[in-house]
């Protein structure tokens, strides 16, 4: 039984047709086939989504001077058009996102673009004073927007710029112009935003907020970004730890803001199963914030439900999209209704054909049946959870560590009485290991078994 958790912070806003429930699709890892979008976009709309934030990264078909940026399996131009057509058919506005400062790994990892690094050893942040930096960003923006002529909004990223003012050129610029790191950030962002606004004056520009989250009010006003950009305030925890005065400061500079929650990819960089209740609680926390702070702004434009595929370009995958669809469904229902209770839990369970109801926290003791696009992946991840937990319990058991540890195996110093029981227990893992795409793992296991 799910206890009722309620907050009506969005009730009035949901009556407005222009308050967005945006689904973020991070395509920098295990990007879906276009045919899969055709299956899930109708569900997004059914659950209350109004728009998509598409973060292509290296899945965009960059060309000419930027051709190195496109992955071998990048979408084609026809794919990009088809994705937008599918979105339009389901009344989902498409908002493309291009990183323009931080999280620039997919660009700076290439030898051709290493000169643009702020720190030569790290491919994370762009050097804003390099003569080719802004031109490269402009090319990326132009190629993206050329293939998105019907978009009304554009997101420039700009989160987690970990390295500013490190290179000698930046240090000299900052010294000669008396700039702080924060001001250096604003100078680059202003150039990017003004380029977009000048060339594509129909677009509203969005950006992540974290790089100005602790900025003093006077400096925020001095940045002159208030009239040309709408910040998207992201926070993915259940107990908020944002600065106490953040809404007062932002409201004095930005008349319009966006918010960002998460439905997956925000708890652990190596997680493979989504804790749905964690993300439901994150959304309920956001509803409380909206209820308390909405009067300070001209408009809270919407909330983006983020779903990260990796923590950065070089990280392993976390929480594949198909297995996280139940979490997305639950979170969008929370935004639509302002609450989460047994009725909503049952509704989501029925929509995804769960028998019994959808598990809200990963649990190896529950063996559900379900049917939705990608449900086989969801069920396989549950199988893997059971296997991993059982295997770890076996490996770390007192008996295994006492009588079949590395010392015993290397010296053949083994007690057959204990070893037989350990091997009998180990046999239950063999069928599962035969499905692993790593033959060395199976060979090692068989060697231990036949020792």
TrEMBL record:
Which residues belong to any copy of the Glycoside hydrolase family 20 catalytic domain? Answer: 71-239
Query: EC class of this enzyme?
Result: hydrolase
Keyword annotations for this protein, in alphabetical order, are: Hydrolase
Database matches in Pfam families: Glyco_hydro_20
InterPro entries to which the protein is assigned, alphabetical: GH, Glyco_hydro_20_cat, HEXDC-like
Enzyme Commission code: 3.2.1.52
The GO annotation for biological process reads: carbohydrate metabolic process
GO MF annotations in UniProt: beta-N-acetylhexosaminidase activity
Carries keyword Hydrolase? yes
Catalysed reaction equations from the record: Hydrolysis of terminal non-reducing N-acetyl-D-hexosamine residues in N-acetyl-beta-D-hexosaminides
Please give the PANTHER family that the UniProt record associates with this protein. BCDNA.GH04120 (PTHR21040)
Which family does the record claim for this protein?
A: Belongs to the glycosyl hydrolase 20 family.
User: This protein is called what?
Assistant: beta-N-acetylhexosaminidase
Source organism of this protein record: Octopus sinensis
Gene of this entry: LOC115214057
